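Notes from the 1:1 (GR / supervisor)

We went over the backlog. Supervisor wanted to see one worked example end to end before approving the batch request, so GR pasted a single chain during the call. The sequence is below; no edits were made to it. Supervisor asked that the structure be written out right there so they could see what the output format looks like.
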Amino acid sequence: MRVKWLKGAMRDLDMEVSYLAQEDIDLARKTYSYIRDRVDLIGDFPKSGRPGRVAGTRELVLDRYPYIIPYRVKNNIVEVLRVFHTSRRLPRKWDAV
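Structure output shown during the call:
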């Protein structure tokens, strides 16, 4: 399946990477690459994430870095909704934030 990053997800990823880059550019690059690589895999394995907190979604929980990436499958496209650091308070609706 094709993977589509929604605007909120891209904004989240950009903000997280920018924040990390202020202290450690190498960590920022590694984090970005790891997140993108893992998200690409859900195109091949869309049910690999756990059932989401919000109906109709799933969540990719990263093991190397503390992020949760909610997504949904819509019309045979995996839509990446957001990228959240696990220390942040999570919203009730992924795509409404």
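Supervisor's comment: The radius of gyration is 13 Å.
Batch request approved.
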